Amino acid sequence: MKEITITSLEEGQRLDRVLEKYLSRASAGFLYKMLRKKNITLNGKKADGKEKLCRGDVIRIWFSEETLEKFTAPAQNTDWPRTRLSVVYEDEQILLVSKDVGMLTQKASGTDVSLNEYVIGYLLDCGAVSAESLQSFRPSVCNRLDRNTSGIVAVGKTTAALQELSKMFRERTIHKYYQALVVGGLEEEKTIDGYLIKDERKNQVKIFSKSVQDAQRILTRYVPVGRSAEKDGREALTLLEIELITGRSHQIRAHLASVGHPVVGDPKYGNRDRNAYFARTYGLRSQLLHAGRIVFPASDGPLGYLSGKAFTAKRPDLFETILDKEKVIRSR
């Protein structure tokens, strides 16, 4: 007999989902049959699998050791990748990490190593999860950033937090603010409107000023928070704080480029001559775009204690160096 006591990591999941993870070699039909026959019980009683689990609930699996071994998922080892993580905030429910330029948020292929895997390694080292707990629940990132965009990524450390964070990002109730250094002088706050179509094959988007077939409407709001003067015949630079009112792939980079203000260093949508200058002068190989601040919405859910709280991640060192050397006078 195997006894599983539900912790804060798993609470909020359905019983059948936990069983599918723990007994991953068993079919769904077999699991429901075992529930009907009371070979699997919840708190000593018959269950149908749809029950939402609470902390302290006890699942008992009345299998022989041989049968249990046959259907149990192999324990996750602790050989997860490790790297230095820049932690912005952490509590028992969530982890906010400032992702470095060049790191994937999630795997794009089976051989990739992403922030998701590094987070598991970090949480194992901290004792927040164990090899055994990873059999029934795995913490995960809840928002994605392009590989070469830096900034805040949110991680749900428990089932309840993961579900709540995912809902906030999906429904866009959590406010995300980016900072970007763009070509050209901008002085006024503005919301720009447009329509976007993505070419999946090229992983690139096109922006239109009017609606066209299959296009998605996009809205991008920006506020200038810093500016340089024109220098040696080159245009001024403006540091923007940007809020995505809609959230589409490559929206910030493509939308700003479409109105004549590409992000410095952007290899897809940027200004080739200006990018060459920054590559030659500073070794810049990626866009100066940073997801620097998030603000939690008012909530009475599992993350209600974070209502209205804002968290900020500092800009990368190279970003700051370029702002200083290019004499971008900034208010933030």
Can you describe this structure?
This protein has 332 residues and is α+β, with helices and mostly antiparallel strands. The protein folds into three domains: 2-71, RNA-binding S4 domain (Structural Genomics Hypothetical 15.5 Kd Protein In mrcA-pckA Intergenic Region, Chain A), CATH 3.10.290; 86-171, Pseudouridine synthase (2-Layer Sandwich), CATH 3.30.2350.10; 175-330, Pseudouridine synthase. Helix content is 23%, strand content 26%. It has helices at 15-22, 28-36, 65-71, 115-126, 159-171, 251-258, 272-282, 317-325, and strands spanning 2-5, 40-42, 58-61, 86-90, 94-99, 140-141, 150-156, 175-183, 190-199, 204-208, 216-227, 237-244, 289-295, 310-312, 329-330. It is elongated, with a radius of gyration of 24 Å.
Can you summarize this structure?
The chain is an alpha+beta fold and 332 residues long.
Summarize the SSE layout with pairings.
Blueprint: E1 2-5, H1 15-22, H2 28-36, E2 40-42, E3 58-61, H3 65-71, E4 86-90, E5 94-99, H4 115-126, E6 140-141, E7 150-156, H5 159-171, E8 175-183, E9 190-199, E10 204-208, E11 216-227, E12 237-244, H6 251-258, H7 272-282, E13 289-295, E14 310-312, H8 317-325, E15 329-330
CATH class of the largest domain: Alpha Beta
Task: Determine the structural class based on helices, strands and strand pairing.
Answer: alpha+beta
Report mean pLDDT, rounded to a whole number: 93
H/E element string?
Answer: EHHEEHEEHEEHEEEEEHHEEHE
Essential attributes:
alpha+beta, Structural Genomics Hypothetical 15.5 Kd Protein In mrcA-pckA Intergenic Region, Chain A, Pseudouridine synthase, 3 domains, twelve-stranded mixed β-sheet, three-stranded antiparallel β-sheet, 23% helix
